[in-house]
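agent> fetching stored inputs for the zinc ion docking request
agent> found them:
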Amino acid sequence: MSSTTPVVITRSDPKRLEIEWDDGHKTSFTAAELRGLCPCAVCVNELSGVRVHDARSVPADLEQRDTRMVGHYALTMTFSDGHHTGIFTFPFLRKHDPQGV
Ligand SMILES: [Zn+2]
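agent> prediction call returned; pasting tokens
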């Protein structure tokens, strides 16, 4: 069973977020990948669970700003397209690791 507790969160690059987990696994997302995964109510229909935001519309050079913790369980940030309502929980980020879990 994989761990979902981050040890190190690196957000110095505005186009990349890196997380090192307590089991030693490392996850890296581009800001564009995170934007495309955004699970908020604007991007995903709350009733149907169907994604209404088109991930293909995200420019590859999208940047994240003001990346910060939400309590002890999640991250939130403002993207350079102005979107800022996404809350990315650590289990969600681990589950959607682009390099595989
Ligand atoms: Zn969203």
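agent> quick read of the result: The two ends are 10 Å apart (CA to CA).
agent> awaiting further instructions
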